[in-house]
Amino acid sequence: MANPITYQDHAVDVLAQVATYVRTGQRFVLVTSVDIKGGSARDLGSLAVVNDTGEMTGYMSNGCIDQDILLQALTCLQSGSARLLRYGDGSPFHDLTLPCGGALSVWIDPAPDKAALVAACNALLARAPASLTFHPKATEAVLAPITIAYKPKVALTLAGRGAVFRATAKVAHAIGFDVAGFSPDIHDLAAITAYCKDAPTHVTSQRNIVTLDLDKTSGLLTLFHDHDWEPAFLVAALATTAGFVGALGSQRTHTARLAQLADMGVSDWDQKRIKGPIGLVPSLRNADLIAISALAEIAQAFAYEQQLVVDVQQAYQTAQLSF
Fold it and tell me: Which residues contact 185 (CB under 8 A, 6 or more apart)?
């Protein structure tokens, strides 16, 4: 019977599991993709962790080689020796193929620097970048060190009410965004609480909406059909470095929205930062589909930002975490 695998995409979710193992004293092996040739289901620097009971969090492929990696990790944990394994083109495992082609090399380390991993986890949870440096070794050679700069998860603040507001919170949570919510409707807030990282906020006056905690990997999406609440949220978002600002509504509504913001003194440059009408698919009438369309546009905007960056120099700009 296959061992259980929890398919976590983002490094912070794998590192959070590592931090739990460190805290409880459970033994584990860290798995990192350190070289990719050709196509791959995962990015360079993707992480997975395997504990001593055979549970794996994270993944290296879309299921085609993960069970073998899990077994190899348990062997490394038992022997106490790290290994560099290659799958695909040039691999000794002729019976294990990569349908996407190319080759993948993974570094399996039963004795990583636990303090460095926990520090990286804490940095990402605090919405700061973190770098990890790996020193993979083959039996006959030591390969060049590889430094990976990891970025925080996308954080999405939703301000709105009604069915689209609820659906967007649900889908955003499902795809791994850190969700925050603001609404004047307490019933809507109750409906999205389970999808938010922290308790959502009940707003009772537009005068209270003056600051939002948004960074370059954060976005704001307003989801009101009654648009009176929008200007305060949009102005607050535009005062930050938010990587995405968007608003629900038709093209006519968006034109009126920009005219109102211009009257409030919002610059042409900041007006152009607001994406609207939000969504890759126009004129939808279903709340779930509107949510998916909007979130697809947000995912597209952050796709480059969320890529792992392989850059030794960048590592020195953040805390150097070396293995």
Answer: 161, 162
The model's pLDDT over 170-196, given as tens digits with 9 standing for 90+, comes to 999 999 999 999 999 999 999 999 999
CA atoms of 93 and 87, how far apart (whole Å) = 7
Rg (CA), the chain: 22
| Crossing angle of helices 11-24 and 114-125, rounded to 10° | 130
Distance CA 305, CA 109 (A): 28
Neighbouring residues of 132: CB distance < 8 A, sequence distance ≥ 6: 32, 45, 116, 117, 120, 147, 148, 150, 321, 322, 323
CATH architecture assigned to 155-302 = 3-Layer(aba) Sandwich (3.40)
**What is d(CA 301, CA 173) in angstroms, rounded to the nearest whole number?**
17
As a whole number of angstroms, the distance between CA 209 and CA 23 comes to 39
> Residue ranges per domain, the chain?
5-151+308-315, 155-302
Quote the pLDDT of residue 107. 92
Residues 31, 36, 42, 45, CA torsion sign: positive
CB 85 within 8 A of CB 108: yes
Q: What whole-number distance in Å separates Cα of residue 183 and Cα of residue 234?
A: 14
For residue 157, pLDDT over 60 is answered with yes
Give the span between the Cα atoms of 245 and 230, in whole angstroms. Answer: 12
- pLDDT, position 288: 96
Task: Encode pLDDT of 44-88 as tens digits.
Answer: 899 999 999 999 999 988 666 888 889 999 999 999 999 998 886
Q: How far apart are CA 166 and CA 20, in angstroms?
A: 32
Preceding peptide of 277 cis, ω within 30°: yes
End-to-end CA distance of the chain: 34
Rounded-to-integer distance, Cα 241 and Cα 305, Å: 13
Cα atoms found within 13 Å of the Cα of residue 204, Cβ hemisphere only: 1
> What is this structure's pTM?
0.83
Beta carbons of 285 and 206 less than 8 angstroms apart: no
